[in-house]
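S.,

As promised, the coenzyme A run. Input:
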Amino acid sequence: MSIGSTRILPSLRVTFCMAELRQLAGVELAAELERLASLLVACVDAGASIGFLRPLDLQSAQGFWRGVLQSEQRGERLVFGAYHDAKLCGSVQLVLAQMPNQPHRADISKLIVEPDMRRQGLARGMMELAEASALKLGRRLLTLDTATEDAAALYRSLGYQFSGRIPDYALNPDGVPEATEIYYKLL
Ligand SMILES: CC(C)(COP(=O)(O)OP(=O)(O)OC[C@H]1O[C@@H](n2cnc3c(N)ncnc32)[C@H](O)[C@@H]1OP(=O)(O)O)[C@@H](O)C(=O)NCCC(=O)NCCS
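Predicted complex:
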């Protein structure tokens, strides 16, 4: 049964400099699938360790985002986008834990920013928006994992606590096993 998109109040929209950060829900997310797929391909090609091997072909990336859209429409996750000059150049997802005993928990997933748009605060802004949205939904415990030191530095600066390191957790984009680090934050 489709629950429908989890639309957060329109007030959760942030604008700074030339950037606008907002939730992408329903038709708005559907309209951005092509762009999100290109963004994912660009990030994986640039070495992002986010679940894919490189080279990632566009068709596979589109398939991934179609799955995200379906999950979003079932009310399982929220998707946020960062726009610069009206062009989508970043995204992050808040994946709502589905088990009945975890109504207070969500995962942060697939935080990506276009390679030539980095170090301008877009990821930090999207994380803050995702956290504000989580709080509105009563999701007070956020968990995530990362294999990337750049991202870990961001998470630590936002107050995420290091919980542990799992060796050989996944393959990096070139197929080499690498460790992942687990973080959590109580909002
Ligand atoms: C990680 C990523 C999302 C950061 O995006 P971003 O928009 O450049 O991040 P921000 O500009 O908001 O940076 C916020 C903070 O993160 C840390 N950070 C970000 N990139 C960093 C880097 N290359 N080296 C060291 N610290 C970094 C810094 O603390 C930075 O604050 P500062 O600029 O004031 O020093 C981006 O590099 C990316 O898309 N990487 C590939 C995908 C990926 O690994 N995602 C994480 C999956 S868990």
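The mean pLDDT is 94. The helical segments are 27-31, 33-45, 58-73, 122-136, 149-157.

- D.
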